[in-house]
Every structure is written in C-alpha cells, then in structure tokens.
C-alpha cells in the first residue's frame, strides 16, 4: 500500500495525499511544510480570511509557538478537570429533556448541544446569544455548500465575539476568555485580533469534532448490541473505548490546510514547493501495518496511538476537554437509558457531506429511563 501519492481532484490542483500511519505521523511533524493560508487563492471572503489567518491552526513558528504558549497557560489541566461537574450537569439536563420523548434525534438532542453548551460556558457566551452562535458556527463550518451565507453570518459572529472581549476586558470573570485576556508571559499578551480569532476557532472547532465523536460512537454501540452490553457491564472500559471510537470513526477524516514550504523528498517522491498536502487521518487510523485487525472496532484495544487529534506542534489543544466530554456523555446516557435503541435500521442513516465524518442524524428510542439521581 502506497503511503503518499499525487491525486488530481476536479479543480485541477494536484495535492499530495498521505495515507499510511507512519507517513501521516511523519508529515504531521514535517517542518518543511506550512499551515499559512493564501486566503485569496482559496476564495475566502476578506473577513473570513483575516479571521482564519490569525488562527493558531493556520500559523507557523515562531508565531504559532508564541500563541500556543500563551493559550496553554489558560487552557490548563486543572481548568479542564474543574469543568467536570458542569459537564455532568449539562448532560443531566439534556437527558431530563429526553425523558419526555418516545423517539428523538440523538445528534440534535444530545451529541451536538452538550459540547456547544460547554464551550459557551467556558467562554462566557451570553445565554441569549447561544442559539444564534449555534446557527452561525454551523454555517461558517459548512464549507462550500453554505458559502453564500457565510459573509453575513460571519460578520455577526465576529461582532458578538468582539463585544464579548470588550465586556470581559472591562468586567473580568472566571471563564476562559477572561483568562486569555489576562494571560501574559513577560510583556507578551494576546492582541484583540488574536483573541477574536482564538474565540472564533474555539467556537467553530470546539464542539463539531466532539459532537461527531459522541454521535459516531453511540451509533457503533447501538448497531451491535454486544458492544453496548459489554460497555454497560464493564464501565471501566469507557476511556479505552472512546480512543477506539476516535480511531475507527475519526470525526476529522482529513487534516486542515498545509502545503510544502520548500521542495523536499518524502516517501520516495519529490514534493515541490507550494504543493498542497492532504493527510488522511481516517486511512492512517485504519492502517493494518500499525493496528492489527484495523477494520474491526475493539472496545478493549489497549495499544492505540491513533492520529485523531493530530500529532506534532499542531496536536489538538482541546483533546483533554473532548475526552472528558465524551466520557461524561457516554456514561450518563448509558446509565440513564440502558435499553436505548435505534429507531431506524442502521442502513438508513446518512452521513454528513462536508469536511466532518459524522452522522447527519441518529434517531433513537430512549425506552425505560432510570430515575436521575443527583
């Protein structure tokens, strides 16, 4: 199996497609690549391009190193662990609302709102703006299919974010945004533009992948009752199972933009400067050379160095939060609804057509909820 090859999509560009696990891991750490976007060449609106160009996700060292250092100081392990009681309350409230329904869409009722509420709480998004934030972020993350809506919605989204920053700069709170405003290293601190892009990235990216993880994982449990019964009988397997859900159904199937910053040799090929590089996390995570029985979901797979959260300097900052949210979400749902079942045949489910590998919906029947205990 070839680990890296040229592929020519309909638009005529010729990116390098990296698929094997070892090759993907190496490319994720390759210093001769760049994440800096050419916003104009990619057809981004001026406002979206400006917001994205400031994102830590699309920066190279030393700018990336500086921002990563600053945000890591605010996004500490202690802060993430302190969120657990709040995440548990959010899950309980969502499950309470589900108790009254005979059938429901688990994506809409649970997988999507849980991480969205958590990131909004973390950033201090005003309660009366949260439904709008949900709409705006869905449109902005919708890719080409919704590009005609993006300029207007992005302007509104960025306007609210700037208002939040101004308000919390004047009246500091105890949330992550106030911490980001306050954090400094010697005389260095975030500019308002950097803060705006950071909040934008956290809102757009801080819930989509986690929602995909929860939805995809629940589907894999419900399509095979043996998996469901085993995980209920062995709740200690949950952290291991979550890693396997990420490997088996990576919500982010391919990496975000990167290109060769200079000409270099890779996997027996010459990669010319400027060549776009697509790294297939989904294929790397199913590489039989790294994962025995890679196409089989194993809840107890112990050695699981998947690339679902990336690798190298751009490894996902939110990975600890995503793992905690998933642990709470799965545990609370399985405990409340031991007889949860699919409401439609698995073959009728559809998957999203944008950049996310995630279900469009997951109709379920809650059945026989256990009483909620505080």
Automatic annotation (TrEMBL):
Pfam families per record: p450 (PF00067)
Alphabetized UniProt keyword annotations: Heme, Iron, Metal-binding, Monooxygenase, Oxidoreductase
One Gene Ontology molecular-function label: oxidoreductase activity, acting on paired donors, with incorporation or reduction of molecular oxygen
Species: Nonomuraea wenchangensis
Similarity section: Belongs to the cytochrome P450 family.
Matching Gene3D superfamilies: Cytochrome P450
UniProt-recorded name of the protein: Cytochrome P450
InterPro entries membership: Cyt_P450 (IPR001128), Cyt_P450_B (IPR002397), Cyt_P450_CS (IPR017972), Cyt_P450_sf (IPR036396)
